[in-house]
Amino acid sequence: MDSNQAAEHLQTIRTLMERSAVYRRALAPIMIYCGVAGIGGGILGDALPLHSAGGFVLFWAGMAVLALAGTFLLVRRQSFKDGEPFWSPPVRRVTQALIPGLVAGALAGLLLVYENPYWFECRFIVPLWCVLFGLALHSAGFFMPHGLKLFGWVFIVAGFLLLYICWEGKANYMAIVLQPHWLMGLTFGGLHLAYGIYLYFTESRRKAS
Fold this sequence. Notes:
The chain is mainly alpha-helical and 209 residues long. The chain has 7 helices and no strands. α3 (53-81) packs antiparallel against α4 and α5 (125-140) runs antiparallel to α6 (147-166).
């Protein structure tokens, strides 16, 4: 690492520390948007005639693209509002931290499509997606407010809890709740929405004080 790279890394860390409160406020609308998109996706996916592993994965891949596009627009608007470039060093750091977990989740979905199991068994991919997404959030949390790492742990624990519940013999009494689309809506939709609401109201109290 040369001196220029070291100086850039130090400046990135300094910027992240100085603007942690701003980034925390920016997370609230992003989380609420992703939560609403996830819950809406769960309702829509359950209503559509998607009864194959391929249909399930492609539908939620489309929902992920929709969530990422909305997040991109929200971050871009916040950057312009603060007079900062969108593709700043902090944004690059966070993106680099998220990519491994997100790519692993995408590859797991492609494997599910290739194997083409009975569509109801798609519910077993949801816990894996939760764990991988939680790991991605935890990695990004090193460059963001500390609450994001805790939020990542929520997804990791939720993923293993769902895996236990979905295991054969544990799911008979929860057949409706354990429909794959409902699981996605409850986890990726419900958890994001709950975290976004928490951020919104805690920031409102901070401003009032």
